[in-house]
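Teaching assistant's notes for section 4

Start the section by putting this record on the projector. Ask students to predict, before seeing the second block, whether ATP phosphoribosyltransferase will look compact or extended. Collect guesses on the board.
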Amino acid sequence: MSGITIALSKGRIFEETLPLLAAAGITPTDDPEKSRKLIIGTNRPDVQLVIVRASDTPTYVQYGAADLGIAGRDVLIEHGGAGLYQPLDLNIARCRVCVAVRKGFDYAAASQPGSRIRVATKYTKIAREHFASKGVHVDLIKLYGSMELAPLVGLSDAIVDLVSTGNTLRANNLEAVEDITTISSRLVVNQAALKVKRELLQPVIDAFAGAVKP
Ligand code: ATP
Ligand code: PRP
Ligand code: MG
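Reveal the predicted structure now:
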């Protein structure tokens, strides 16, 4: 496309991006929660949105299938960020990555340097680096969702997952025992597109920057 393609995931990122798009004068013509369309037009004939899985956003932008995208820092750490320019922290979809265990589990004992712990997570890179920095041997079990279930059914001792209100942990009799890092979503830009289409992309980037809430 000679115009701009923006990759967004539906759900919280799409919802929280709407005000930023509005600041750039962009209004989607469909709601991805209601439509099955994966390419959504906007009021601007030169701007389209593509609806992707949250964890796929960096890939679409890296390969230039989208010029811009919005992705959580969790997703960007796991992806590695190759080929991506990350000019803005948008301060949306804020949460943290935590280690959590069943209430009553002796995490202090289980996470002594030299010990071995079984951890279920979608975030294998973040988890591997975290436990390596503590000198704890970790057996990682890769999951794609519902991480909170794993300690309840004996799949793992601990999980590494996102926590926001803590409601999901509480509902499942788990507790956060360590904060690893804080997360918010970032604007990602294809590096080549920024050179070739700068006059189109820069005003959108600037409008987003002006609309970021502290
Ligand atoms: P995928 O489709 O890749 O498995 P997902 O369906 O979990 O991801 P979302 O739940 O929409 O996708 O999460 C998108 C991003 O929003 C995450 O990468 C994270 O940065 C942030 N996020 C996830 N959960 C929360 C939460 N409970 N509160 C605030 N931000 C969150
Ligand atoms: C995310 C995350 C946690 C939950 C934490 O799940 O994976 O399970 O939010 O938020 P809380 O601390 O406010 O409860 P999400 O709602 O995205 O559901 P998902 O399993 O479909 O990703
Ligand atoms: Mg989620």
